Amino acid sequence: MDIRKILTLLIIISVITGKMQGQIFAPSASDSFAASYNTPSGTDKVFVFNRTVYQEEITASITAVSVDRTTGWTFEWFVFNRLSSAYEPVPPAGSGWMSEIDTITVSSGYQVIMTKGINSYVYRVWVMMNDYHLEITNKDEEDKLLFGYFNCTSLDLRADTILTPLFYYNPDTKAQISVFNNFTIRWTTDNEEASNPSSRLVTRVYNPPSADTWYFLRVTDRFGLQRYDSVFYESIQSEARITGTYINLSDTSAYPGTGFGNFYSDGIRSAPGKYLFDFSASRNTVTYRLEFGDGEVYETSSDTLEIMHEYKVPGNYKVVLTTKSDKPYECPDSVMVEAELDFAGFSLPNVFSPNDDGDNDLLIFYDNNNVFRSEDVSVTFIDIAIFDRAGLKVHEFAGNIRDWSGWDGRVMKSNRLSPEGVYFYVISLLVAYEDENNPIGKKVLKGFFHLYRE
Q: What is the pTM (predicted TM-score) of this model?
């Protein structure tokens, strides 16, 4: 801040307070506070100058302004000698309405005597050079966390400071007065999935992240001086990640050459059924163990991190993936997903119109498949016969229901079309994985439906 700005500020203050007073100012100081002792002329100030870099050379300046802001004053400067506990003269000695010392490089006390005629005034201030060093102590020359300060369950971060004592003196009693400096500590990371360590110089992180992470330390003292340091943690943690996706029966890559898509809409979780488990998103892992929940286990250390598994019967399966990181740590992790296949469900349509109009051609509509068919869940075997009203059998099938292509409205697979009317079906055998709390029941074994051609 230049002298004109200082003068303008002093004039404004004088107008507000209604009085003029000589004073020593330090516009470039980082902070200031009143000394803990009182003097006849008022309270002495303590100016704090922060070193932005540890042990950096800085130069502070202080400015004395006369009582009435007019010229004709003489200024004599003195510096406090810690050894003799006395003020000793130093340049500059000058005259005018203000005087400045701009060569201060160490902490010390200063006194100025302003004289004009018979009037003389004495003002004193203390200048403190604030500095401290911050260092994370358990890292190597490449800023990596040292071996021995981390394991599978935790990692330790250790930092320390080298403090510069802050103090001034009571010029009357010559007693040294120490200045308390408190600090705010904050750890952060560059990994949004990692938790921030607690606000201590020495702290422990539990459940370390599975991704390599930088830990940043920032310390701020009461005078706003900040110091920074950082350390890199090369993760040894394994993180298990898995997704399980039911494979629809219409998926021709999982069920090649079957044509299941003609009769099963997506979302029908019929057993036997297949799931695709993808654990490629796992981190920092070299071995994988997958327990499917039905007694079968898959283990691998390869880069093929997708596996298809078929469940033979319905149920809710707890699928557990356990991973381990590389030796020598072999940190384990596990995660669970669920695989669910539905118990039996079975129904047949009561209206059937195999005329390629897309309306009631079958229970679930698919192009070019005008058949009388059930979209079942977990029915494995069926023995079915279809009769007209005269008792003539027009269709029959016995076997795995997934192999049943349905009735297309022709008499016993001939080219002769069955006429419109009421038809009856009889299921003499139905094998299914039934939920004991909700069985299919005998009522589904017989029924009738209408066949329309128009």
A: 0.77
